[in-house]
Amino acid sequence: MDKWLGMSGGDLGRGIASGDIDPEALCEAFLAAIAQSPHGPRIYARTTPDRARAEAAAAAERARLGLRWGPLDGVPISWKDLFDSAGTATEAGSGLLKDRVPTQDAETLATATLGGSVCLGKTHMTELAFSGLGINPTTATPPNVNNPKAAPGGSSSGAAASVAFGLAPIAMGSDTGGSVRTPAAWNDLVGLKTTIGRVSVAGTVPLVTSMDTLGPLCRTVEDTALALALLEGGKPADLSGATLRGTRLLVLADYTDSSRDAPQAAVAQAVERFRDAGAAVDRRSVATVDTAMALTPLLFAPEAYATWRDVIEAAPHKMFDQILERFRNGRGVEAADVLAAHRTRADAQQAFLSEVAGYDAILLPTSAIEPPDAERLSTDRDYYVTENLLALRNTRVGNVLGLCGLTLPTSVPSCGVMALAPPMAEERLLRLGAAMEAALR
Question: What structural domains and CATH numbers belong to the chain?
C-alpha cells in the first residue's frame, strides 16, 4: 500500500477501475500516512476521516458495480482551508475565522464529490491567502520538500506539501497572485492557475474577488487536467499526441533576466529541451507587461482590505503582523484610482494579447527567487517584504493580465518554468504542458 502514496491520481484511478486498488484501502492508507507523518500536523489543519471513509465506501461499491462516476472516482484529494466544507471548520489560516463552520460545501467541493472524489481534509495556508511565502505563525507553516529550513511557498502551502510529501495525490488550492504556482514550483509540482471566472469561487473564502481563481496542484500534467475537469464537472483535456513540434514560444526576457541565478538557469535549461523537442523559441520583452504590473498596488490590497476591513480592525491582534500590514496597505486609497486602474488593466490586457498573438505560450521562471529562509521571514520585516514581492512578481503577470498559467518542475529543485496562455485556453495550455513535461523528463 505504501506505493500508492507516491502514485499519480490518474494511475490510482486506473488501478481502481481495473480492480487492483480498493478505494477503502486507499483511503485508509492516506489517513494512516497523515496520522503517522511527523509533517501531518503542519500540513493538514484538520482531516475529515468520517467523510472520507463514507465517500470511499461509496466509491468502492460503484467500482464493484462498474458504475464509476469518472477517472478520479475513489481518489483521495486534499482541500485548501478556504474551501467551505459542510460541518467542518473552514478558517482560512486565520484566528479571525476560528471555529467558523460552514453549513454547506463550496460549489467546487460539491462538484468534485459528485465526481466521486474522496475528501481527506483541509490543508494549512497563509493567513487569508495574502502572501506568496507560506509562513503562518498563527496556525502552522508547512514544510518545504527540498529544504527543511526554507519557506514552502504560499498561499496554498499545505496543499503543495500534502502532495509533495505523499499525503495526498492531488490538492486543490487558490491563486490570486500566484498562490497555486509558487508553492507548486517550490515543491517541484505541477500547478494550474485558471482563468478568472472559469471555475466557480462560490463558497470559498475570498481575498480579491475580482482576481481570485481556483486550481489544482499535482504531480503530473495529466492529473492537473483530470483535477480541472473534476472541479468543473466536465471532461478532461485530451492530452494524447501532444507535441512541441510547430509551436512558437516567447521567453519574457526582462522578467527572466531579472530573476535570480537558479530560476534563470532552470528556464534556460528547460528552453533548450523545448527547442530540442521541436519548438521555435523567441526571446524579448513586452512593454505592455510593465504597464499592467505597475497597477498592482491598486489591484490587490485596496480590494482585499475593503473585503476584510471590519473583521480585521475588530481584532487586529489576532493577525500575523506582516499579513496585517499587507492588508492595511489598502487603506486610504481613492476609489477613483482603483477604478481607473481596472480600466487601464483592461486596455493593457487587450494590447498584450495582440502583441503576443503569434505565440502558443509565454515562458518565464515561475518565481524570481528560490524559497527563502523560513525562520528569518518570521523575524526580519524587510526580508519578508522583499522576498514576498519577488516570490509573486512573475506569477502576478498572469493574474494582472487575466491569463491562465501552468508551472512545471525543472531539473533545478524548487525552480519551475511557467507557461502563460490567453484566457480560457486551459485545454490548449494543458496539451502544451504535457508536451513540455515529456521534453523535461
Answer: 2-232 (3.90.1300.10), 248-440 (3.90.1300.10)
Cβ(126)–Cβ(179) under 8 Å?
Answer: yes
| Reported confidence tier of residue 1, pLDDT bands at 50, 70, 90 | confident
- Residue 64 scores a pLDDT above 80: yes
Examine the residue annotation and report whether 94 is marked as an active-site residue of this protein.
no
Going by DSSP bridges, is the β-strand pair 118-123/76-80 parallel, antiparallel, or unpaired?
parallel
Respond yes or no: is residue 98 known to be catalytic: no
Query: Given 85, 155, 156, 174, which residue is catalytic?
Result: 155
What is the pLDDT, as a whole number, of residue 388?
98
Considering the entire predicted model, what is its pTM?
0.98
- 411 catalytic? Reply is no
Q: For residue 288, give the amino acid letter.
A: T
Q: Which one is catalytic: 179, 259, 367, 414?
A: 179
Longest dimension (CA), the chain: 61
Assigned C-alpha cell, 354: 495582440
- Per-residue pLDDT of 182-241, as tens digits, reads 999 999 999 999 999 999 999 999 999 999 999 999 999 999 999 999 999 999 999 999
